[in-house]
Amino acid sequence: MKPETSRMFILSSLCLAFYCLCTADKFYNSGNHEWKKLIMVHHWPTTVCKEIENDCRDPPNYWTIHGLWPDKASECNRSWHFDLDEIKDLLPDMKHFWPDVIHPSPNRSQFWKHEWEKHGTCAAQLDSLNSQKKYFSKCLEFYKDIDLNSILLKLGIEPEISYYQIEDIKNALVSVYGVEPKLQCLPPEEEEEIQILGQIEFCFTKDLQLINCTDPKIKRYLEKKCSNRLEFMKKHEVLPG
Where is it mainly found (predicted)? Predict the structure, then answer.
């Protein structure tokens, strides 16, 4: 092979290799597995029951865990299946703080399976969350540290005591945690203006530090999602039939 031809061959090979690397990186990113923050989601069981029109058979009367979700990522490793044996020592806390409100035992582990395979496999990009034991343990730790049930009680925000202004609840929580959470509500029924509080979310950096959940765009979304006046339900009415 002539020197000039050889140089051209090497240059072409290098360009091809560079192109393949770029393509591989683009393919990975297109999988939507990159994320910037974690969202610790609490939900109010009575609202969950109302949303799905299910009596749920005596849902807990305290805030429970919905999940720990990386933003902008889901199902990052479909081959990493849930294994209940890995969290056996966590089961007492899991059953109490992270119950499956909709599907009672013996199917409660299906809820945890869903949360791990959809969200946990993405959170596992962090060393501190790179196993099922670490993921569920950290979520339980966040839940206990945030202590939402006790804090709301101390703030006088209780179910069926009165109606609340969304800004009053957010401002009260900011005064305690120093960051702004995100509130989610059910839409009003028919001509009613009052919405029902359903979820409260707290956000964390990849360093697991609390941060604001909201930015100007999200605030505009919240104004559409939650009205200024909302209700905090205590009991769920069992549907006839």
Answer: endoplasmic reticulum
